[in-house]
Write a structure and sequence with these properties.
about 300 residues; three-stranded antiparallel β-sheet; 2 domains; about 45% helix; two-stranded antiparallel ribbon; mainly alpha
């Protein structure tokens, strides 16, 4: 039973990764490069050819380009397999190395990838591999392409309802993350009494709740930190300008505005961002929920556009 539980947990973890690939959507559709390369890896696993170290080889490129023929109508240019091979490291799928075995900083230097052992086991498991294929095809490809890919792989084409269910897959980790984000919002917004820390503005309604957001100081994508001391309640304009680095916060909780780095206008000067420079934030009564100086330092260094 323990082995079964481990397999289910591993499957959910990697399916969650596959469902959240960072793909370019600038042209409308999600770019197919990463999903196609992962489908090629499913083939390797099915043939017993997948190892903990994956070489960027002509054989792997052949599989990738064969898959690419199905979606070739989307792009005028032939793709470079090195791009998805290198950039899947950003999705937490694997780590890439150069010919010396050192971490690779550039796709031109990347020669191999180190695959986590549980990732290999995930794709080697027939049930998990089939779920992975269904998810990738349903989520990242057009209807015509879906049919072609199922035929190519040798799987029966599922019903539209089954395709939609695969495309909407959310793992238990997604559910836990949604719960943590909701808890973060409640703890931060209530700590600030539904009031914007920058402007002191407060507006609540029965139908919509509060105008303020629970903003991360050290962005969540990088920090994965939903501690309330990494949060601050901000109205929409203040949140946007904070994320853009147009203002930041000193260790004594005063506003630092990137003066001279933007232009603004408004009916009254009271509303202008530049007039908040040097003012102290509107902070919670509970000092244990004030922003952590460690996170403030990250924002000053990582986001602030120095005046």
């Amino acid at each position: 039973m323990r082995g079964s539980d481990d397999r289910i947990s591993r499957s959910d973890y990697w399916l969650g990764k596959f469902a959240r690939l960072r793909v370019d959507r600038a042209r409308g559709d999600p770019a197919p490069h990463k999903p196609l390369l992962l489908l090629a890896l499913c083939d390797l696993a099915e043939n017993g050819e997948l190892r903990d170290v994956l070489t960027l080889s002509p054989e792997l490129a052949f599989r990738f380009y064969t898959y690419w023929n199905i979606v070739a109508g989307r792009r005028a240019q032939r793709p470079d397999v090195r791009l998805p091979f290198h950039h899947l490291t950003g999705d937490g799928i694997w780590s890439v190395i150069d010919e010396r075995g050192e971490p690779s900083p550039d796709k031109k230097l990347t020669k191999r990838a180190r695959l986590p052992s549980d990732f290999v086991a995930f794709l080697e498991d027939p049930s998990s591999r089939e779920k992975a294929r269904h998810l990738l095809i349903a989520k990242y490809f057009r209807p015509f392409e879906q049919i072609a890919l199922y035929e190519m792989i040798g799987l029966p084409v599922p019903s539209q309802q089954e395709i939609e269910r695969s495309a909407a897959y959310r793992s238990p980790e997604d559910a836990r993350m949604a719960g943590r984000e909701a808890r973060f919002r409640i703890r931060v917004v209530t700590a600030y009494n539904y009031t914007c820390a920058l402007t002191g503005y407060r507006l609540t309604t029965v139908t919509a709740g509060s105008i303020v957001d629970a903003a991360h100081i050290h962005e969540f994508r990088d920090s994965r930190n939903n501690d309330p001391r990494n949060g601050i309640a901000l109205c929409k304009n203040a949140h946007w300008s904070f994320d853009q680095g147009l203002w930041t916060i000193s260790d004594d909780y005063r506003v630092i505005v990137a003066l001279g780095r933007f232009t603004e206008a408004g009916p009254t000067k009271v509303d202008l961002l530049e007039n908040h420079h040097g003012r102290r934030l509107h902070l919670p009564r509970d000092k244990t929920l004030w922003p952590d100086p460690i996170h403030l330092a990250w924002h000053r260094k990582g986001r602030f556009r120095v005046a």
